[in-house]
Amino acid sequence: MRDISARELKGHNILAVERFQDSTRWMIEFAVRKPRTPYGSPGDEVRLFLTEDGYRQALDAQRSQQIKIKRYAHVVEGHILDFKPRKKRRHP
Fold first, then answer.
1. Are 62 and 50 in contact (CB under 8 A)?
2. What are φ and ψ of residue 24, in 5° steps?
3. Fewer Cβ close by (within 10 Å): the C or N end of the chain?
4. What SS3 class is residue 52?
5. Which CA distances in Å does 19 have to 13, 73, 90?
6. Model pTM greater than 0.85?
7. Helices and strands of the chain, counted as H and E runs
8. How, if at all, do strands 10-11 and 45-50 pair?
9. 35-74 burial string, b = 16+ CB within 10 Å, else e?
10. How many Å apart are CA 18 and CA 81, to the nearest integer?
11. pLDDT per residue rounded down to tens, the chain (92 residues)
12. Under 8 Å CB-to-CB from 44, ≥6 apart: which residues?
């Protein structure tokens, strides 16, 4: 299987206008799993730049197994920042 970044993705282009809008906070890349979703057909690989509300809707779609998010990142002023959750600190 090829890396998702090397594949042609549907949805937003990496330099899409949506990426640079003030309200954009997230970028996600995902696979569509079920038919009749607003995201595409099963097997489609999609990239979207989303607001907070749009991201919550995508998480709901993942919970209902309509999509499977493969990559996500914060977007700040058009810059894509890889999201890495903080590790919990261990105390000796």
1. no
2. -70, 130
3. C
4. helix
5. 9, 12, 37
6. no
7. 1, 5
8. parallel
9. eebebbeeebbbbbbbbeebbeebeebeeeebbeeeebbe
10. 16
11. 444 445 679 999 999 999 999 999 999 999 999 998 888 899 999 999 999 999 999 999 999 999 999 999 999 999 999 876 556 566 65
12. 10, 31, 32
d(CA 70, CA 28) in angstroms, rounded, equals 8
Determine the residue type at 60. Answer: D
Which residue blocks in 11-83 are alpha helix, DSSP H? 52-63
Nearest-angstrom CA–CA distance, 16 and 22: 13
Instruction: Look at the block and give the residue holding tokens 């569509």.
Output: 32
The amino acid occupying position 83 is F
